[in-house]
């Protein structure tokens, strides 16, 4: 399968601390990948480097042949803890704003995506009045508004109710069925396994496991994850 992004011996150092250590990772076209790990494992840092929002301290990041950095950025939709939404605008105004940033103007797609995230009936209300679940669904719509092939999602399900979770899961399943990929950062191993064909366990800046989700048992993955979390806790005692 064609590799769309490759990381070789990647390192990230901040405040003299190695937060990522010799990361090797190849992301293939249409692949759905979970980054799983405890607090401080380096998941968000790695995602920011892949989004080209952070520069690695060492190592190499290569894009597919012919893909410039701008093209890569334009083909990415990101959902990070900061929603990037404007509270004083309505949902539809937010989506128009972000579509324009990407040089697009497609009102029909905005209606379509608002429908998908079940916000059509409140599309003209100010985002400042939205619940957490509604905001997060709108964040997904914002990430998709320019129809990117790839999504980077940092804990998109955190603190959401079941309805919002199911809506977002459904969108991710459709995204994958259209041959598009995503990377999902998650603490929820079961959900990550259900949503991603490949699961990567990170600990203390290193990749500990990198397997097809179908080829490793959820229980043995959970055991490894749990023992790493316990090791972390003991370090703090
Ligand atoms: N800008 C920064 N300044 C200082 N330290 C940072 C910075 N960015 C990341 N770090 C440190 O790097 C380590 C990895 O952080 P990162 O946010 O990538 O972890 P994570 O796996 O996403 O954790 P969490 O699940 O808690 O979000 C942490 O110890 C964090 O304190």
TrEMBL record:
Task: Note the SMART domains from the entry.
Answer: AAA (SM00382)
Give a single Pfam family match: ABC_tran
User: Which InterPro entries does this chain map to?
Assistant: AAA+_ATPase (IPR003593), ABC_transporter-like_ATP-bd (IPR003439), ABC_transporter-like_CS (IPR017871), ABC_Transporter_VariousFunc (IPR051782), P-loop_NTPase (IPR027417)
All copies of the ABC transporter domain together span 5-229
Determine the domain of life of the protein's source: Bacteria
Would you indicate the residue range of the signal peptide? Answer: none
Task: Write down what this protein is called.
Answer: ABC transporter ATP-binding protein
Keywords associated with the record: ATP-binding, Nucleotide-binding, Transport
**Molecular functions (GO terms):** ATP binding
């Amino acid at each position: 399968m064609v590799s769309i992004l490759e990381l070789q011996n990647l390192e990230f150092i901040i405040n003299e601390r190695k937060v990522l250590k010799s990361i090797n990772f190849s992301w293939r076209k249409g692949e759905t990948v979970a980054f799983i790990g405890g607090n401080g494992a380096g998941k968000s840092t790695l995602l920011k480097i892949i989004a080209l929002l952070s520069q690695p301290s060492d190592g190499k990041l290569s894009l597919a042949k012919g893909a410039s950095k701008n093209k890569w950025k334009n083909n990415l939709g990101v959902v990070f803890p900061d929603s990037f939404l404007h509270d004083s605008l309505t949902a539809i105004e937010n989506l128009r704003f972000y579509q324009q940033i990407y040089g697009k103007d497609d009102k029909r797609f905005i209606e379509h995506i608002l429908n998908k995230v079940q916000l059509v009936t409140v599309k003209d209300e100010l985002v400042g009045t939205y619940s957490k679940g509604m905001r997060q669904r709108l964040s997904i719509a914002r990430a998709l508004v320019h129809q990117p092939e790839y999504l980077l999602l940092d804990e998109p399900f955190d603190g959401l109710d079941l309805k919002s979770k199911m809506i977002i899961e459904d969108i991710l399943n459709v995204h994958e069925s259209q041959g598009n990929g995503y990377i999902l950062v998650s603490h929820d191993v079961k959900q990550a396994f259900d949503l991603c064909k490949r699961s990567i366990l990170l600990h203390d800046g290193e990749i500990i496991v990198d397997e097809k989700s179908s080829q490793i048992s959820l229980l043995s993955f959970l055991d490894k994850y749990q023992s790493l979390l316990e090791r972390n806790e003991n370090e703090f005692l």
